[in-house]
Amino acid sequence: MSRFVWTADLAIDGSQIDFQHRQLLEAMADLDEALLAGQPQRVAEVVSFLHLYAETHFADEERVLALIAWPGLERHRQLHAAFRARLGELDRCCRWGDRQAARALLAFLEDWLLGHIRGADREFAAEVRALRQRQQPGQTAGT
Ligand SMILES: [Fe+2]
Ligand SMILES: [Fe+2]
Q: Is the pTM above the cut of 0.70?
């Protein structure tokens, strides 16, 4: 079984943020599979998807943080920017079919992204859940 499997400790808001984190995890599982299967074309496609989707996710997450007036928004933006810079470097190497770079990228994603979701993203979970409750009263967030 893939090690990139959604677990309850990754839940943040029971809504959009969780959905996007799941998509990122699934793409990491795809990348792992493509690397194991030795499929460079698929590796390149998944890396490119991961890059684009991470951008979308960060922009959406930062919008939500602005909505709740999260005091750590600037700091959080900086964390995303540092990730983006490193991802850009590794992505460029992957485009040239460097398998080693693709493995390094996956290891980086596993370490950084999962650590980020369990750490920095978790810090605003309660506030974003409260926002979701206000947006959709009657629904239980976090399930
Ligand atoms: Fe996130
Ligand atoms: Fe984040």
A: yes
Ligand 1 center from residue 135 Cα (angstroms): 20
First-last CA distance in the chain: 23
Residue identified by tokens 């793409």 is: 27
Taking the CA of 17 as reference, the closest ligand is 1
CA 20 – ligand 2 centroid, Å: 11
Contact indicator for 124, 73 with CB cutoff of 8 Å: no
Task: Give pLDDT tens digits for 80-127.
Answer: 999 998 888 777 777 666 788 888 889 999 999 999 999 999 999 999
Q: How far is the C-alpha of 120 from the C-alpha of 31, rounded, in Å?
A: 24
Q: Does 2 reside within a domain?
A: no
Domains identified in the chain, total number: 1
Considering every ligand atom, which ligand is closest to the CA of 73?
A: 2
42 located within any domain: yes
- CATH number of the domain where residue 129 is located: 1.20.120.50
Distance between alpha carbon 67 and the CA centroid of its chain, in Å? 20
